[in-house]
Design a protein that fits this description.
Two copies of one chain form a homodimer. Chain A has nine helices and no strands. Chain A is mainly alpha-helical. In chain A, helix 5 (about 85-100) crosses helix 7 (about 125-150). The longest helix of chain A is centred in the middle third of the chain and has 28 residues, at about 125-150. Chain A is elongated, with a radius of gyration of 20 Å. At the A-B interface, helix 1, helix 6, helix 7, helix 8 and helix 9 of A face helix 1, helix 6, helix 7, helix 8 and helix 9 of B. The structure holds a DNA duplex.
Chain lengths: ~200, ~200
DNA sequence: ATTTTTATACCAACTAGTCTGTTTATTTTT
DNA sequence: AAAAATAAACAGACTAGTTGGTATAAAAAT
């Protein structure tokens, strides 16, 4: 047996993520990561073959957590209620509650961070981001589709675009919340999305 | 007198803005700017005393254009119609139309670009960003206030938060539109905001 | 009208320092 | 023994910014 490198690796990843959200990826140096992680250069390059390798790992881990959380949210609300509209609203409320507990603005989304310096990243990284966003679109579109079977839309709208609005509002709210230093803004913005869906779908079929 | 430096300065600013949206600010080197602008280092540092000076100029120019466009939009829709709700909807439609003409995703918002590498910028730059966003909040809140006088809200909501949603959706849509490479996404997302307002406000007082 | 002056605009080469990544030898942990 | 980490030196490319000098164009002086 040998000693366990996981704590070191995890520490590097956690500190790197924070630093990237503070400085951008190009604006974050390996030396800064070493300083914050309290490790040495040898340890860093033992765990990651390059800074680009770190970038890939960071986005893969972020995406995994993001999609795992989506899965949890879907399971938590699944068949909880016979009415698909109520399920949808409960799903959104879950994220409102999550965001309402924040005492400082959400540190930011790595997807957006990477999207705002696209030339720094390889195509497979960009595909990971788009495929994650498309998973959200797909899952929410399914819920909207179910809802539409029993609740007529007062204004006909494209379901995928309506599904995207969840992601759009989250991403936009992270930016504005950080810019204004208003932690509660994200929860309030998601509440508008919930309002919109309540108004858009008629109460009964 | 001597030769005119304005074309050179403008070229630097235009190419820099593009590069910053492609690479981030820290990810953009002065040498890259020189290459794209086809000028030399001497010329660059003649016009800008530092790279930070360029950052400040970029955001000031961007903010000026942004707020000037807001002003135009307000004037174009001003008293065009007696009904403040119709004016509000027209205002939003103007931005939908603007975004609908894009053939590739909007290159991105400098506010968001800067917000995602906050440590790179001084406090006065961050204040410029927040004050620009707050101007949008204020102006839209006035329109919402006017609207509320004659149209009851079906779900009571905070006007400033409802005003913020315009900026939130724009910022979020820029991110998602770029990530998915879907130019039309931004227009579609703004349409949802318009739908929301139409559903939220009752047709008459 | 032609020369001289002046301020601006710009260039090319250079400096001092930072960047990622490598190497090598040693030490700690399981 | 094997894996995980330290420590420190190093390379080569790239970084922001500086320097001394030159080109340009218009105004001032002749």
């Amino acid at each position: 047996m040998a000693r366990d490198g996981k704590p070191t690796r995890d520490k590097i990843l956690a500190e790197s993520k924070t630093l990237v959200l503070e400085n951008g990826f190009a604006g974050t140096s390996v030396d800064q990561i070493l300083e914050r992680s309290k490790i040495t250069k040898g340890a860093f390059f033992y765990h990651f073959k390059s800074k680009a390798d770190l970038a890939r790992t960071l986005i893969e881990d972020f995406s995994s957590e993001d999609l795992a959380d989506l899965d949890n949210a879907l399971k938590e609300t699944e068949a909880l209620n016979g009415d698909p509209l109520q399920r949808l609203l409960k799903f959104i409320q879950r994220y409102i509650d999550m965001m309402a507990t924040l005492e400082s603005p959400y540190p930011g989304c790595l997807y957006a961070s990477y999207i705002y310096e696209p030339s720094q990243f390889s195509d497979d990284i960009k595909e990971k981001i788009s495929s994650s966003i498309l998973t959200w679109r797909r899952e929410l579109a399914v819920m909207l589709d179910e809802t539409q079977k029993t609740h007529r839309m007062k204004i006909p709208t494209d379901k995928e675009s309506l599904a995207d609005q969840f992601t759009v509002i989250l991403e936009g709210a992270f930016v504005v919340s950080k810019a204004l230093n208003e932690p509660q803004l994200t929860a309030h913005q998601l509440k508008h999305y919930k309002n919109y869906l309540e108004l858009l779908f008629e109460k009964r079929a």
